[in-house]
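Lab notebook page, bench 4
Experiment: in silico fold of construct C2
Operator: M.H.
Input chain length: 245 residues
Purpose: comparison with the prior construct
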Amino acid sequence: MALPMLRGCYRFPSTLSFTRLFSNERIILNWSGKTRSPPSSPAGAAAAVRPYSSERGRKKQTQKIVMVGIPNPFIWFRTRIYYFLIRTYFDKEFSIEEFAEGSKQAFSHVSRLLSQSQFEALEGLVAKDLIGKLEEKCNLLPLSYKQALSADPEEIMYTTPGDVGIYYDDNGRKFVSILMRFWYLTSAHLPDDTMEGTRIFQVAIGEEVETKRLLTANYEFQREFTKGVTPDWTITRIEHSKLLD
């Protein structure tokens, strides 16, 4: 059964996560986990924070973040077709839930490396031509911006697939690309004049109130599905809105 020729930027989600090989301290992108992610469209995403005290006079404070996604019906239907094509022609065990969870782990890890300027550690995870560009951009950022790049796993509020694509190059090699979008909180001190449009929250932690911003990031993952090629995912695009575009 021949695979329909889909060229250009037709995009769709997939499954990945980080596996650390302790023998050589190398990290690779691989398949794993089965944890469900939020709806597959970020359209109309919103956030709300509700600090509240625990019952019976206890001072412990808890925060609750609610992210609401309103899916575009056309995009929702189109991506389901792409999921079917991936399972039929590329990977029978493909699961968008697994990929979303894995991409979240990858995002947290890579964003931390960027924040700490550990560019050599990005080799094998991020496309080689992209690493150099990221290093140039990060070296120009003030310290507070670098700190805001790092996304702690517990601070990632929402993850959703964006564009998805299947395409071939001139040599007949087959590729899948998936753009993932993330919303995360940061307590880094950022100037208000350059952060226009970002949401600010007052989060109660015990008796203290901490100010946090909700930031967004786009990471595109690509995998080659040509026969005989190692099934690793590589990050080919990184955008941190207001910080690293």
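Observations: Residues 1-62 have pLDDT under 50 and may be disordered. The chain is about 25% helix and 30% strand.
Next step: discuss at group meeting.
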